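Renewal narrative, Specific Aim 1. Our central claim is that a sequence can be written position by position from structural information alone. The example that follows is taken directly from our test logs and has not been curated for this report. It begins with the structure tokens describing the chain, in the order in which they were read.
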């Protein structure tokens, strides 16, 4: 088109899109060409992605133009991101990310926008919209309908979903930025949830039913979890759900008794129950000298194919090892080894032994409800020896 351009500038823009924003090369080339054309008033270059798309039809790797309403905003996880949240229309909802270098105008929750030339990307299987330098954002007065459809826990897929669940268990937070994590579920099963510390977010109350709109569903190592930052959580005080157990059975040998096992001290503040440090410190309520004792085992059960993280709570620990909570407390008070003595006692009781464990699959951990020791089976032993002998003869 007889226009001289700065090749170094074009290369810089191209590298920024590809290397920093993860845009595939053909689409990055289109963006750079379009922006350069606009700068030189070349109307002959056609604009990209002008056809309006429904959010529910978007696929990773596409460029699109959409119209939707911002239904939630969340705090960016990085300084490289200026804004993140969820935008929805009648067909569905999707996360969006506005990168700081894109200099995109900030979106307001509850307002409707037309977004032209956005990139549909994905992270851990979750589709997301990325705003880049070529994205055009226009506020519109159109009243966009968005009707969240409730999804059963068993039918969740990576993306954005609305669920009606009961909060059934809170876990100990393993990261300073986590406000709350635990298990929620409905009749079809359970799923792990996480709420990151952020201004304005609140904790879920145990045994309470919630209508949760536009939660982010992530997948990691084959396990789904939901993040509630940016979602809307409304308690249903009179609601009731019989949560499906997500029952699972694993048979194998205990190969490890891990850190955090034994006699632990818990925070006595109502609704907390966090494990205290050796100096009786709770990360939320600080020093708690009027603590309560608890007994647990965090171990690994190897079934010969897969290693399962398992968690035994007090009742199961007592039944499996024969050591009661009262006996453990007395031992700690009398033993010079203190809490370590309990860990050694539990380790000697179960390490290297075979069990059938039944419990609830909590995502990355099996919460044990019943643990049955396995004895010597002479018939199985004979069958294995016969099979081994046959393989040796054949070789």
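The sequence written for that structure reads:
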């Amino acid at each position: 088109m007889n226009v001289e351009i700065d090749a170094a500038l074009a290369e810089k823009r191209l590298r920024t899109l590809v290397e920093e924003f993860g845009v595939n090369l053909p689409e990055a080339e289109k963006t750079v060409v379009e922006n350069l054309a606009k700068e030189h008033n070349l109307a002959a270059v056609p604009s990209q992605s002008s056809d309006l798309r429904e959010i529910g039809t978007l696929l990773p790797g596409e460029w699109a133009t959409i119209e939707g309403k911002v239904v939630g905003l969340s705090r960016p996880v990085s300084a490289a991101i200026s804004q993140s949240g969820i935008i929805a229309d009648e067909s569905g909802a999707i996360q969006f990310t506005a990168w700081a270098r894109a200099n995109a105008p900030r979106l307001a929750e509850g307002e409707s926008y037309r977004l032209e030339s956005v990139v549909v990307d994905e992270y851990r299987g979750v589709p997301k919209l990325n705003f880049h330098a070529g994205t055009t954002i226009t506020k519109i007065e159109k009243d966009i309908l968005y009707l969240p459809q409730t999804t059963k826990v068993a039918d969740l897929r990576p993306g954005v979903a609305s669920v009606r669940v009961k909060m059934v268990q809170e876990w100990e937070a393993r990261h300073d930025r986590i406000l709350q994590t635990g298990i929620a579920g409905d009749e079809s099963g359970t799923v792990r949830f996480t709420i990151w510390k952020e201004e304005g977010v609140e904790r879920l109350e145990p045994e309470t039913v919630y209508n949760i709109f536009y939660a982010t569903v992530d997948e990691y190592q084959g396990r789904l979890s939901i993040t509630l930052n940016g979602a809307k959580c409304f308690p249903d005080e009179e609601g009731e759900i019989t949560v499906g157990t997500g029952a699972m059975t694993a048979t194998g040998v205990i190969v490890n008794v891990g850190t955090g096992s034994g006699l632990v001290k818990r925070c006595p503040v109502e609704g907390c129950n966090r494990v205290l440090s050796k100096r009786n410190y709770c990360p939320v309520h600080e020093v708690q000298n009027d603590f309560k004792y608890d007994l647990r085992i965090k171990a690994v059960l190897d079934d010969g194919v897969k290693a399962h993280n398992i968690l035994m709570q007090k009742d199961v620990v007592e039944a499996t090892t024969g050591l009661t909570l009262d006996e453990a407390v007395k031992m700690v008070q009398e033993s010079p080894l203190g809490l370590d003595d309990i860990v050694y006692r539990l380790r000697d009781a179960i390490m290297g032994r075979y069990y059938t464990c039944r419990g609830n699959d909590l995502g990355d951990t099996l919460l044990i409800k019943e643990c049955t020791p396995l004895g010597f089976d002479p018939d199985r032993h004979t069958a294995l020896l016969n099979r081994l002998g046959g393989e040796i003869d054949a070789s």
